[in-house]
Amino acid sequence: MDTPTKNHIGRKISRIRELRDMKQEALAAALGISQQAVSNIENSATVEDSKLEEIAKALGVTAEGIKQFSEEAVLNIIGNTYHVDNSSAVNYGCTFNPMDKLIEAYEENKKLYERLLQAEKDKVTYLEKLVNK
Questions:
Q1: 133 vs 38, residue with greater confidence
Q2: pLDDT of residue 9 exceeding 60
Q3: Same domain? 59 vs 112
Q4: pLDDT category, 3, cuts 50, 70, 90?
Q5: 77 and 97 fall within a common domain
Q6: 3-state secondary structure at position 32
Q7: DSSP for residue 85
Q8: Backbone angles phi, psi at 41, to 5 degrees
Q9: Is the residue at 1 inside a domain?
Q10: I need a labelling partner for 68 at 20 to 30 A (CA). Which of 15, 29, 102, 115 fits?
């Protein structure tokens, strides 16, 4: 059932703001209010609908999204996105340096070019020997 802490709009606003990596000062600037006013809002269990709409817009979410926000849902999404022991999980981290791979390819091409050039030189030398005989 809904407990007062579970439906505390101010805490939900605070957590969404933190998840969006936004400081209270930035939210205050977006709303045209003081940082202290944002702090007061985040400590309030309820927020007027008109103010909630403004806050939602500043956070890039909907007012309904704030009302329905659940920390457990966020943790479940994060937890279900990647598991080390789950072979079907997608690992978005790059495991090599792309620049190193580019340099390796360049070095391989350079060696191949040098071998090709040497083969052509050998061919020219062989043909000159045949012509001179």
A1: 38
A2: yes
A3: no
A4: very low
A5: no
A6: coil
A7: T
A8: -65, -45
A9: no
A10: 29
Say yes or no: 13 and 77 in one domain: yes
Domain range for 51 is 9-81
The beta-strand segments (E) located in the chain are none
Cβ atoms within 10 Å, residue 67? 14
Identify whether the C-beta of residue 79 lies closer than 8 Å to the C-beta of residue 26. no
Closest among 2, 16, 115 to 64, alpha carbons compared: 16
31 falls within a domain? yes
* pLDDT one-digit tens code per residue, 63-110: 888 888 887 777 666 666 655 555 555 555 567 677 888 899 999 999
Residues 77 and 121 in one domain: no
Q: What is the pLDDT of residues 13-62, one digit of tens each?
A: 998 898 888 899 999 999 999 999 999 999 999 999 999 999 999 988 88
Per the CB < 8 A criterion, the answer to whether 68 and 18 are in contact is no
For residue 45, the domain's CATH number is: 1.10.260.40
Q: How many domains does the chain have?
A: 2
d(CA 44, CA 42): 5
Determine if the pTM surpasses 0.90.
Answer: no
Please state, in angstroms and rounded to a whole number, the distance separating the CA atoms of residues 7 and 12.
Answer: 8
